[in-house]
Amino acid sequence: MVKSNRSVDALVSKGVDDKTAEKLVEAGFTLSKIKKIGSDKKLRVELEGFLGEKKLQRIMLAITSSTPAKKKPAPKKEKKAKKEEKKPEKKPEKKPVKITLPKKFIEPSEIERKIGKALDGLKLKLPDSVITELGKRLEHAKLADKTFKSIISKAAESFTEHRVDANESAGILAAQSIGEPGTQMTMRTFHYAGVAEMNVTLGLPRLIEIVDARRIPSTPIMEIYLESSVKDDIDSVRQIATNIEETKVIDIADVATDIANMRVIAHLDMKKLAKKALTPEQIFKKINGTRGLKGLSEIGEDGKSIVVKSDESSFRKLQKIYEDVKGCSLKGIPNIERAVIRRMGGEYIVYTEGSNLAEVLTIDKIDKTRTTTNSILEIYEVLGIEAARNSIIREASKTLEEQGLSVDIRHIMLVSDLMTNDGEVKAIGRHGISGRKSSVLARAAFEITSTHLLRAAIVGEEDSLEGVAENIIVGQPVTLGTGAVKLVWAPKKK
Asked: Are 43 and 125 found together in one domain?
């Protein structure tokens, strides 16, 4: 037993781990026996079968090395104790950060507070928007208290008179008020006001686009306003307009196909290049980095052309390369085809053909509070549903006003509220509001009658007959106006 312990210790001292050393000694392989492997092939084969080739090689390296493997000294307890005694250094205390929440509303002015107190005294109520409007008109007027209260009382009385009566058919009134002037609208596309070079859809086609919530308008246009530091500097405005306008190869070069040599050549117009602040090297890099054209292009010998060779002897491939070279974007914002500068209202404004609100708002020196687009869904995606609601009101009002038609803004506001009330912009049609009505008969009365009735019959839908259309269909009084009141008068019998 003592002998075997010594044999194990001898192997461990040479760098063999405890478990392997014990196994070797139990199998009868001592240190002196293992050293004879070099001369005894049979012993080597036996050990390889016992340990494996790689493990045997590691053990042999450990045994044959001159210096025995040193064990790591056990950590002293005293040092540990000392470490434990050391207290962790206190980190400097961070000063609490004051968080200021943004104000969700504008604080009322002094005159607005005065109007509020007068209303409380008279036990009357007015909306905040009406109080603000009254405040603007009475701000600089010197009035006696009696006169002031009289004006407030008259305003409250006028507001009450103009409110919609209970059970009034506000929807039908709004539809009639927008639909009737719509019959007098033109069907043509006009030039944009003040910008002769640009066309924009106006009249009835534009109104249909708005209420149909079209994803892309037929003529998308942006009005880009600039910050006060550059709005009067024409050179800075031109530079911004150049950076906004998307420039493609076809805009600054004549692109031609060389069928004999199976290549496409873009002959650069150096004047246009200078105007767009581009160089042939930049154009070469852009073309060479375009998908489908990588590694095929080179600068021409004259330095004023870009040659793109086809890697296949196919006319179809050559045509594809020709189209890809023509449409290769060099600079500017995607979808902005043209930018026109006009001076209006004492400042320069950039009008664009095409719209990309998200990208335009990232450009420096752009007034982000006034820059807008006529694409309602783009405003919804970038700025949210409230901005989209305001955009519908603004675009519809502007379209009607341009035709010389006056429609009360409250009718348009009702339509925009209905289109945006559930957090997304919906069209007024069978794919939007009309298609989502709870009444089967109302849906059937609008479009595709047989389909709606068939589906309702299969599912077993019920119609509570609460709306206008369904009550007219079944021939009973509509639940609006006098029809909303259900009273039965039974006279006393004599």
From this structure: no
Full domain range(s) for residue 42: 2-64
Q: Does 338 share its domain with 283?
A: yes
Alpha helices by DSSP H, 126-279 = 128-138, 145-162, 170-182, 203-211, 234-244, 249-252, 270-275
Query: Which backbone phi and psi does 471 adopt, to 5 degrees?
Result: -70, -35
Q: What residues contact residue 175 under an 8 Å CB cut-off, 6+ apart?
A: none
Radius of gyration of the chain from its Cα atoms, rounded to whole angstroms = 42
Residue 303 lies in a domain: yes
On whether residue 451 sits in a domain, the answer given is yes
Q: Tokens in use for 125?
A: 């109520």
What is the total count of domains within the chain? 5
Say whether 257 sits in a helix, a strand or coil. strand
Please check whether residue 86 lies inside any domain of the structure. no
- Is residue 48 located within the same domain as residue 139? no
Tokens, residue 139: 């701000």
Could you tell me the end-to-end alpha-carbon distance of the chain, in angstroms, rounded to an integer? 132
The conformation of residue 216, written as its DSSP 8-state character, comes to S
Sign for the CA dihedral angle at 254, 255, 256, 261 comes to positive
Q: Is the same domain home to 405 and 330?
A: no
Q: Which run of H or E residues covers position 267?
A: strand 263-268
Residue 105, in any domain of the structure: no
Tell me how long the chain is.
494
Torsion angles phi and psi, residue 464, rounded to 5:
-85, 0
How does pLDDT run across 247-297, given as a tens digit for each residue? 888 877 878 777 777 777 788 878 877 777 777 777 777 777 777 676 677
Say what the pTM is. Answer: 0.65
Q: Quick check: 452 and 463 in contact, CB under 8 A?
A: no
Give the C-alpha distances (Å, rounded to integers) separating 435 from 95, 149, 218, 305, 445.
57, 50, 24, 57, 11
Q: What is the pLDDT of residues 409-457, one digit of tens each?
A: 999 999 999 999 989 999 987 778 877 788 888 888 887 888 889 999 9
Same domain for 310 and 404: no
Verify that 345 and 242 share a domain, yes or no. Answer: yes
Both tokens of 119, joined, read 């209303």
Bridge partners of 192, per DSSP, are 195
Pair 411, 436 in one domain: no
